[in-house]
Amino acid sequence: MRTLVAAVLVAAVARRLLVVVTVRGNSMRPTYTDGDVLLAARFPLLRRGRAIVFTPPTNVRDAPPYRVKRLVALPGDPTPDWVRDRQRFVPAGHVVVRGDNLRSEDSSTYGYVERAGVLAVVVRRLRAAP
């Protein structure tokens, strides 16, 4: 009985801390491809260079509920030249993202992403696309 209770408790905690995401599209190629299944940690400590899961800005039409991109800049960092509607520094409460594939729809297309919209940081690939 204790084992069952422990298993249920572990599952409940994992469900709050982890999220499983399926990659849609090829914007993160060659790192991740369409159909890859990723494990991501909620309550992320954001660091430049990490792949993140986030809600796209509202100005993105026909967007899936979540996207996976590389975190490029944090609040207060100099804004890269390629960011749409760029300010000199990344504003408070925002981040800059970019796909690993340069043909990506990312901050070059839709500008800054709200920090509050960042759901998780990718931990690892669970399953490669078939």
UniProtKB/TrEMBL annotation:
Lineage: Bacteria, Bacillati, Actinomycetota, Actinomycetes, Pseudonocardiales
Origin species: Actinophytocola algeriensis
Family stated for the protein in its record: Belongs to the peptidase S26 family. IMP2 subfamily.
Keyword Metal-binding: no
Principal subcellular localisation of the protein: membrane
Domain called Peptidase S26: residue spans: 3-77
Active site (record annotation): 27, 69
Protein's name in the database: Mitochondrial inner membrane protease subunit 2
Family matches, as InterPro entries: IMP2 (IPR037730), LexA/Signal_pep-like_sf (IPR036286), Pept_S26A_signal_pept_1 (IPR000223), Peptidase_S26 (IPR019533)
